[in-house]
Every structure is written in C-alpha cells, then in structure tokens.
Automatic annotation (TrEMBL):
Tagged with keyword Lyase: no
GO molecular function, one term: diaminopimelate decarboxylase activity
Name recorded for this polypeptide: Diaminopimelate decarboxylase
UniProtKB keywords: Pyridoxal phosphate
InterPro entries documented for this protein: Ala_racemase/Decarboxylase_C (IPR009006), De-COase2_C (IPR022643), De-COase2_N (IPR022644), Orn/DAP/Arg_de-COase (IPR000183), PLP-binding_barrel (IPR029066)
Domain Orn/DAP/Arg decarboxylase 2 C-terminal: 20-361
Lineage: Bacteria, Bacillati, Actinomycetota, Actinomycetes, Pseudonocardiales
Stated family: Belongs to the Orn/Lys/Arg decarboxylase class-II family.
Residue numbers bearing the N6-(pyridoxal phosphate)lysine modification: K47
Orn/DAP/Arg decarboxylase 2 N-terminal domain span: 23-264
C-alpha cells in the first residue's frame, strides 16, 4: 500500500493496527526455499506469527510447521497441517501437555532431556500410541553474530546425555534423529554457514557415540531480517552452495535435513500503524506519545529481558517540507518502561499524525505485553496485495473457570 492507502486504512480500522501482506509472505518464503539445497525441508516456526491466514499461506508454499504450545498446534491443524506431521518443541512440556498433544494427533516431538524422553514414552504407552522423537542437542559453540541460543542451558541435551539417552528410549518411542538451534538473526551468509557448521558438528559427535545414523536432522534457522526498523535481511546468495558442500559428507547416510524459517518470511510482511496522541517539547528532546506501546510492540523487550528495540518510524501524515527531528516515541501505558523508540529521526509529529513502523510481521503482537493494563489488543489486518482477507484482534481478557 502507498502512503495514502495506509492513511485511509488507519481511518477505516483505527489504530494501533498491524497490517500483514500475504503476497510478501509468499515472496520471502519462496526466496528462502530457493536458497536451501534440493531435497531439504523448511518448517515455519509459528512463534513468529501464529495468525491463521499467515500460517495457511506458508503451508501453501510448501513449508512444514514447528509449534511450541497446544494453541499453536491447534492453529497449525486449522491451517491444514496434519497434527502427526507437526514438530512439537519446547523445553518444558508437562505430562498433561504431552497427553493433550497426543490426543490431538501429535506424533512428532523434539525432546529436551532424558526425563522428558521418559515422559514422552510413558504418555505414548498409556495412549496406546508410538511417538517419533528428535533429540534436541545443545551446541558447543556459538555463531559470531545474532541472538545466540548456545548459552540457553534450558534447551536440549549435551552430547554425553544424548549418547546415553539413545539406547534407553522406551519401545513407545521411535528415535528419528536430532534437532539443533544455534540462534536468531545470524546476520550474513558467512555467519549462517558458521552456525550450521556448529550444529552439524554436535550431531556428528553424537552419531559417533551412538553408532546409529539419524533419519532426520533439524538444523534450525537463524535467517536474519530487521525488526521494527527499515531495511532488508542479508542477501542469501551463496547459502545454497555452502550448505550443499557442508552436507555432502552425509550423502551416504542420507538423513532428511530440515531447516526452520524463524522470522524471515513474515517479518517484512508486517507494518504497524500508530496514532500520535501527544507531543511534548523537553530540554532533552521531543517526546511523542502514541497509542501503541509495549503492549502492542513489545518484541519481548518490554521488561528489558532481551535486546532493546532500535525502532525507526515514518510519519505518514507529515508533508515533505515538515522538518525532521529526533524523537523519543513512548506508549500510553502507565510505566516508564513503555518506550518504543529512542532518538529516532522523523518528520516532526503532531497530535493525530499516523506513524508507520516497518518489518514487524514477526514477533509483533503476540510477543508483546498484550494483557498489561487490560487495554484492547491491536487489530491485525491481513491483505493479499490489493485484496483484504480479514481482520482479527487479540483478546486477553480473564475468563471464569470452575474447580
């Protein structure tokens, strides 16, 4: 959409408003698929954006699905995936969650510990089923850039634990192979290849210890894209060739190799529109209060627990002759933590102006503090080029339950 169309959309639906374009989702997914070696598979990680039409679109271009909750599993099934084909991941799967997932038809799990392997086996046996399992491995090294998972001690088994666990699996568990995830936002093809090399190395170490070649290896993702800022992710030229060379020594054992999309297919497809409520001139600079705070665009940074946002904004309402100033953009919440952008340049905002934030199609609405202060969730509008598909709103209200 051009500027005028975005402003018309904000008037029609109100703000804060997320806008997702399925045409962009398709383009980015096909670009990523083309950058991977032939014969490999790509799983869409629903945590990036679990909105049903987005998930269905990625299924349509040939992606599989990776989920980390019963809610995500339900969305994947509603989008057309078979529950038995969905990879169910996460470091804290309780017996109740596993039972519920199996009852929904889930059969394929990423296992995070020896205890969880026993739990999966018992749940499957009690249900009269057999589950297929990938052992998640802790990588030994971290890539040179990105949000590394290598120090995430809650994830996966060490190589020693995996070698010990392999022969101890219950009869109700079919061990298929391994799952490794190095980290997010690996900023260049070189960094991606370094990460996948580290992931492959830990798989090779465990295979040497078990003597059993895997049938499936999920090497994760890390494919980069800017977050809440203008720009594009790195060009993927050379990735296919580099991965083909890296995986060449698996040609004889021929495991099926999977990768995970991460944020890349959906990030560029998302735009956030937010309205300026107030502007305050301060000695330290211009403070702009908008209707989208960390309850709308938190990016899991609202409590300072992960990397801070470096958000950029574009004033859609400002004429080109309006001066550009550095602004601090804050949200409407009653906390000093509600900061969206710091010292970012923008055509000087005025109350009523509509600001645009780029590249928020991944880790946007559902990665924010949507329940904080009981404010309405943001609207999520899906389009496919010029055609509107539908609109949704996150509802985080408490509901009564009975004991």
């Amino acid at each position: 959409m051009n500027r005028a169309e975005l402003l018309q959309t904000s008037e029609r639906y109100g703000t804060p408003l997320y806008l997702y374009d399925l045409a962009e989702v398709r383009d980015r997914a096909n670009e990523l698929l083309a950058a991977l070696p032939g014969g490999t598979s790509l799983l869409y990680s629903l945590k990036a954006n679990p909105l049903l039409p987005v998930v269905a679109e990625l299924r349509g271009v040939g992606c599989g699905a990776e989920v980390s909750s019963l809610g995500e599993l339900d969305v994947a099934v509603a989008a057309g995936f078979r529950a038995a084909d969905v990879l169910y991941t996460g470091p804290g799967k309780s017996r109740g969650e596993i039972d519920a997932a199996i009852a929904r038809g889930a059969e394929l799990f990423s296992c995070e510990s020896e205890t969880e392997l026993d739990r999966l086996g018992a749940a499957a046996a009690d249900a009269g089923r057999r589950v297929r399992v990938l052992l998640r491995l802790q990588p030994g090294d971290r890539p040179a850039s990105g949000l590394s998972m290598a120090d995430g001690r809650q994830f996966g088994l060490t190589a020693t634990e995996a070698v010990r666990a392999w022969p101890a699996a219950a009869e109700s568990v079919e061990l298929l192979g391994f799952h490794v995830y190095l980290g997010s936002q690996l900023g260049t093809v070189e960094h991606l290849l370094t990460g996948f090399t580290c992931a492959k190395a830990v798989v090779d170490e465990v295979v040497a210890g078990t003597g059993v070649p895997p049938r499936i290896v999920d090497l994760g993702g890390g494919f980069p894209w800017p977050y809440a800022a203008e720009g594009v992710g790195c060009d993927l030229i050379g990735l296919r060739e580099g991965l083909t060379d890296l995986l060449s020594d698996w040609a004889e054992s021929a495991p099926r190799v999977w990768f995970e999309t991460g944020r890349r297919p959906t990030a560029a497809a998302g735009t956030l529109l937010t309205t300026v409520i107030d502007v305050k001139e301060r000695e330290s600079g211009v403070v702009v209060v908008v209707d989208a705070g960390i309850n709308v665009l938190g990016g899991m940074a609202g409590l300072g627990r992960v990397l801070r946002l470096n958000t950029t904004v574009d004033n859609l309402s400002a004429a080109d002759d309006r001066p550009e100033v550095a602004v601090d953009v804050v949200g409407p919440l009653c906390t000093p933590l509600d900061r969206v952008a710091a010292r970012t340049p923008a055509r000087k905002p005025a109350p009523g102006d509509v600001l645009r934030v780029h590249n928020v199609g991944a880790y946007g609405a559902t990665a924010s503090l949507t329940a904080f202060l009981s404010r309405p969730g943001p609207l999520e509008l899906v389009v496919d080029g010029d055609e509107e598909v539908g609109a949704w709103r996150i509802d985080a209200r408490a509901v009564p339950v009975t004991g």
